[in-house]
C-alpha cells in the first residue's frame, strides 16, 4: 500500500509527533510510506529525539499546506491507498482509498456541521484516539464512534541500584497553552518543599524537562522558586541520559490538570501519560493525579497510587517512602503494566486498525 502520514505539528517534537512517526515507522516495514512535510530538519530532529528508525520512510511534499490549491491537493490525495491525518479540528478533502483521522486530545471544534463537512466525514473510514479519556470526550461532544490506539512507549529498563529520587518528566510550559503552569511543575515544587519542611530527609525531587528559548525567563523563575531545597533540574537531556534517570528514581510524580475545571477544559489534563508509562517501565512507582489518561494506566494499590488533593499527594508519597515492601511490590507490577504499551503492541494494533 502507498500510505501518506500528516501531522500539522511535526516541528513541535511532542508526544503526538512521536506517535505519528511511530505509525510511519511501523507501516514502512511492509508498505510504501511518505511523511507529508517540507522540512527535512524536522524529521531529523524527531529521529534523534525519539530514537526512531525512519530509514524506510520517505519525505514528500506537504500537500496540506496553503500553497497547494484545492484541485491540486485533491488530485495528490488520489495517489494514496491510505492517508493517516492528525486532526487539529479540521477534516481534509481526500480521494485516497482510505482516510483515517487521529485525534490526540479533547477538541472544542471539529468540522462536522455544514454540508461540506458532512461530505468530508463521509470519506473518513475510521476515527481513532490515543486514550479512553480523549475518546469519551470526542464521542460525546461530536456524536462519533472512535477506536483507541494507545501510544507506543519505549522501555529501556536496566537493573541498577535505585536512589531516593522522586522524578517528574515533562516539557516546560508552552506559550500556546492558556493555563500558566500547564504541567503543574511549580505546584510539585511547592509540595516537595512542604514535605522537606515537615521532616523529609535524604530524598530529592528531580524535574527532567526541555525548554524553548522563549520560555527561558519563566523557567528561571521556577528555578528560583526551588532554591534552597534538594530539587534538581535535568534540562534538555538526550534519551540515554533520561533513561538513566528513570532507572535511578523510585517514585514518579505527575500532576497535569490539578486545580483546573476539567469539565470546561478537559485538554488541561494529561490525555494519556507517556512519561508515566516510561517511568513504570523502569520500575519507578507512579504517584499521579486521578484525572485524564492517568486513570487508564495506574490502578490504585496495584501498580501505583492515585491522588485527588495536595494532602493526598504528600500522604501517599510518604506511605511509599516509609514502606519498602509496598514500594517493591508496586514497582514490579508497574513494569508488568508498562509492557502492554510497547512499540510491538502498538504496531500490532495499528495493523488491525488499518
Main traits of this protein?
354 residues, alpha/beta, Rossmann fold, 2 domains, 6-stranded parallel β-sheet, 13 helices, 13 strands
What topology does this entry show?
Blueprint: E1 2-6, H1 15-27, E2 32-36, H2 40-50, E3 58-60, H3 70-77, E4 82-86, E5 98-103, H4 115-122, E6 126-129, H5 132-142, E7 147-148, E8 165-169, H6 185-197, E9 204-209, H7 216-226, E10 231-235, H8 239-248, E11 251-254, H9 274-281, E12 285-289, H10 294-297, E13 305-307, H11 310-322, H12 324-338, H13 343-353
Helix pairs in contact: 1-13, 9-12
Structure description:
This protein is α/β, with parallel strands linked by helices and 354 residues long. The protein folds into 2 domains: 2-149, Rossmann fold; 165-341, 3-Layer(aba) Sandwich (Rossmann fold), CATH 3.40.50.2000. It contains 13 helices and 13 strands. The strands form 2 sheets. The protein has a 7-stranded parallel beta sheet. Helix 1 (15-27) links the parallel strand 1 (2-6) and strand 2. Helix 1 packs across helix 13 and helix 9 crosses helix 12. The radius of gyration is 21 Å and the shape is elongated. Mean pLDDT is 92; it is low at 175-179.
From the 3D structure, determine the CATH topology of the largest domain.
Rossmann fold
Number of helices: 13
Assign a percent range to the helix content: 25-40%
What's the N-to-C terminus distance?
11 Å
| Strand elements, count | 13
At a glance:
Helices cover 38% and strands 16% of the residues.
